Amino acid sequence: MAHTAQKGKVIAVIGDEDTVVGFLLGGVGELNKANKPNYLIVDKNTPVAEIEAAFRSFVARDDIAIVVINQHIAELIRYSVDQATQRSPAVLEIPSKEAPYDPSNDSILNRARGLFNPSDF
């Protein structure tokens, strides 16, 4: 299973339609035992509360190893994304074709910067 990070673990995706469909075409789509999908397509009509609920649900699931989220959507729920500091699932922010990636807003990258001294580079 090329799309799993660990045996029995899957990737969850929160993003715009193009991003999620791309991952689904790559074989990422799964339903857990409770018939809950591991993805959420977000559009302009998706309430922020729904996005945050899906994110919190994915982070709490033990069958998910990685949560991939479009960075512009992560900005809508930044507090929750920044609170997800556990090792698993890892939270990865990615760009979308509508919104470029801004490394200064990436919570994982910002935490990693704190681990090193500038003189190390």
TrEMBL record:
Keyword DNA-binding assigned: no
Function statement: Subunit of the V1 complex of vacuolar(H+)-ATPase (V-ATPase), a multisubunit enzyme composed of a peripheral complex (V1) that hydrolyzes ATP and a membrane integral complex (V0) that translocates protons. V-ATPase is responsible for acidifying and maintaining the pH of intracellular compartments.
NCBIfam families tied to this protein: V_ATP_synt_F
Protein's UniProt keywords contain Ion transport: yes
Family to which the UniProt record says this protein belongs: Belongs to the V-ATPase F subunit family.
Pfam families with a match to the protein in the record: ATP-synt_F
Protein name per UniProt: V-type proton ATPase subunit F
Alphabetized GO MF terms: proton-transporting ATPase activity, rotational mechanism
Listed Gene3D superfamilies: ATPase, V1 complex, subunit F
InterPro entries, A to Z: ATPase_V1-cplx_f_g_su, ATPase_V1-cplx_fsu_euk, ATPase_V1_fsu_sf
GO cellular component: proton-transporting V-type ATPase, V1 domain
PANTHER family given in the database record: V-TYPE PROTON ATPASE SUBUNIT F (PTHR13861:SF2), VACUOLAR ATP SYNTHASE SUBUNIT F (PTHR13861)
Lineage, highest ranks first: Eukaryota, Metazoa, Ecdysozoa, Nematoda, Chromadorea
Assigned keywords, A-Z: Hydrogen ion transport, Ion transport, Transport
Signal peptide residues on this chain, from the entry's feature table: none
Quaternary data: V-ATPase is a heteromultimeric enzyme made up of two complexes: the ATP-hydrolytic V1 complex and the proton translocation V0 complex.
